[in-house]
Amino acid sequence: MKNRRVPPRLRRRSGRASSAIRRPGPRPGPPRGRRGAGAPGTRDALFEAAAAAFSEHGFDGVSVDDIARRAGVNKAMLYYHFRGKLALYRAIVGEMLREGGARIAAVADAPDPPEVKIRRFVDAFMALTEGRPWFPRLMLREMAEGAPHLDPETLGGFRAVLGAFTRILAEGQDTGVFRQVHPVLAYLSITGPLLLNIARERAGAAPGRAGLPMLVPIPRDQVREHLERIALCVLSRP
User: Fold this and answer.
1) Helix, strand, coil percent values for the chain (each to nearest 5)
2) Which of 83, 111, 139 marks a domain boundary?
3) One pLDDT digit (tens) per residue for the chain, 238 residues
4) What pTM did the predictor assign?
5) 72 and 129: one domain?
6) How far apart are the first and last CA of the chain?
7) Can you give the residue range of the structural domain that contains 109?
8) Residue 51 belongs to domain with CATH number
């Protein structure tokens, strides 16, 4: 049977149809008004939004949708950058501990007398909490619940923080300036009042509480001076 010739008009139509099929259309992007994976600041926006939300409502009181809405991004971006809510939570705690360990190690390694290092430790710790106002409440809540959301790797970040503080303490003990005291007890005696004061002032910032004496804000210089006195009283030899 002879092949039938296809009229030119049909060949042109066939070619256009085939070309239309092969030509890919534009890929759908993220919803309008939201950042995509490559948008500047997407990861930071998720980090900050989640840190604030976890601080206010706890791990179980915050959903992926809540974080994405607060950050102004598509929730798929949370999985893209952090793999999930738990990984994001651990990244927030881990970042604080790494930064804290680095700052306190710098204090411990400086060529200053132990008494000066303790004062610088107080100042460094205050600066950390002021730069991350969400951290005290988040950490106090987590530790009060038994740290159920932190894995050994994240909790291991405390090793660097306490290790640097312990070096300061040991130097003062070796030179006879500081008394013998367990490093954990000394650390909690200095940092505990600061964390509680931050939580207290945050409670006082709620509407209708401005006149309550227990919740009034205290100037930073007074807090720092008081913590330095506590530290030296706790550590100094009698």
Assistant:
1) 70, 0, 30
2) 83
3) 445 555 555 444 444 444 443 444 444 444 444 544 455 589 999 999 999 999 999 999 999 999 999 999 999 999 999 999 999 999 999 999 999 999 999 999 999 999 999 999 999 999 998 888 888 889 888 999 999 999 999 989 999 999 999 999 999 999 999 999 999 999 999 999 998 898 888 888 888 888 889 999 999 999 999 999 999 999 998 8
4) 0.77
5) no
6) 115
7) 93-235
8) 1.10.10.60
